[in-house]
Known about the structure:
Blueprint: H1 10-26, E1 85-92, E2 104-105, E3 108-112, E4 117-121, E5 127-136, E6 140-150, E7 156-165, E8 168-175, E9 179-186, E10 189-198, E11 208-217, E12 220-225, E13 228-234, E14 241-248, E15 255-267
Amino acid sequence: MIDPKRSHSTFPRLILFSVALASLMTFSGCDLIVPTQALPPTATATTTTSPTPTTDWFPATPTPTLLLLPSPTPQPTREGALEGLTELLVEDSFTDDSLWQTPQGASGNVAFGVQNLTLAVARPSTQLFSLSEHETPENFALEITLQTSICEQDDQSGIVFWHQSNNDFYRLLINCAGEIRLDLVQNGQNYVLHDWEQAAQMQVAAPAVNRLTLWVYQGRFQLFINDVFQFEEGIAADRSGKLGLFARTISGDAMTVRFCDLKIYRVELN
């Protein structure tokens, strides 16, 4: 709920937020943008078009943690090309607006910029989610660039993969303090597979630009950030589903992130 003490400044904040969003969308790709100051939350006059406004994307986490496979000893860095990359399945420069959902409303907007998808959250304790037409197969490698322009320490963004329904998907979370986590949401319950830990050699806060790489093969999940290995975890070995992107305010009143340069490869090992 928005603090009533802030309500008197809604109109000027609306102007600032609209100008900031328009400016972000005019830049190409995920070039680093240094804002003059963090912008406050605002509402937008655009009519809400999100098809599932009541979806709980962050259900409460039960006490037990789901254990699937033991994690092998992490490798400190990624050396050379990712293992087993074969067919390039998806190369998305975010120029085809039919491939991603773009919900818009008072809580914020998802919109196409110049070769990027911008998620601009305009309220505290609010999440935006965009589901794509892209499939993440059973064995895949995914690379995408994340630029954070406005955020506070606990605010989160990330990637949803193997999305089969709004109650069944995997989710990689990254906060603006530079911490990472891997979850499974199944039957509306949230299971922490890899709890929050500090990422290695990641740009934090805002502005920041980071290249994310997910590598999945036969129940093994590996995460790299800026080509630096982060962790490996055991996950399911026989799933597929859609790809999605999200942003969520936790400690901040507003948040803006951009995603660009998406590639998805098929992974095959002999």
